[in-house]
Amino acid sequence: MDTITLIGYFAGTLTTISFLPQVIRSWKTKSTHDISFAMLALFGLGMLLWATYGFWLNSPPIILANVITFALILVLLAMKIRYK
Amino acid sequence: MDTITLIGYFAGTLTTISFLPQVIRSWKTKSTHDISFAMLALFGLGMLLWATYGFWLNSPPIILANVITFALILVLLAMKIRYK
User: In chain A, at which end, N or C, are there fewer CB atoms within 10 A of the end residue's CB?
Assistant: First the structure.
């Protein structure tokens, strides 16, 4: 695999896992007051559309990355609604 | 432009602008306690790598989307440090 493809995979892994520490923090503190609902909603919708894009192009890495991130955003949205 | 390319552009626009309402909310409330520093750091590093990927492939849409998002993440990181 060439360097730039590796950089692309590394970038995708980072942006996908980045929401995990946010989920853990919100779960621990039970507080999501400072997180913007609009940010989560827009980002989640964007993830759904990226996943659609990935399905259409039959690209497993695009599908996988966006489905995982979408799931994390859904958890954050649920906590945002639950914890206020 | 075909439908799937339009979906891709729309997805990219959504994920890029999604951090704008977060910046506005944090600016207004002067509070970033519930936002995970690790999330911002990992996501910001991911954006830098995606921008590198875009420069390497000479892809203006990838560069533009990731540079704008990186700038918004930098603002959030600064507010996270400033407001605690």
Answer: N
Q: Do A14 and B46 touch (CB under 8 A)?
A: yes
CA A45/CA A27 separation, integer angstroms:
22
Which two structure tokens, joined as six digits, stand for A71? 């799931």
* Yes or no, beta carbons of A45 and B14 under 8 Å apart: yes
**Measuring CA to CA, how many Å separate B72 from each of A19, A28, A68, A84?**
16, 26, 23, 24
First vs last C-alpha separation in chain B: 45
The predicted model scores a pTM of 0.91
What mean pLDDT is predicted for residues A60-72? 92
ipTM summary value? 0.90
* Short-list B28, B16, B29, B21, CA closest to A38: B21
Q: Return the SS3 of B46.
A: helix
Q: Do the Cβ atoms of A14 and B46 come closer than 8 Å? A: yes
- What's the rounded mean pLDDT across residues B20-36? 97
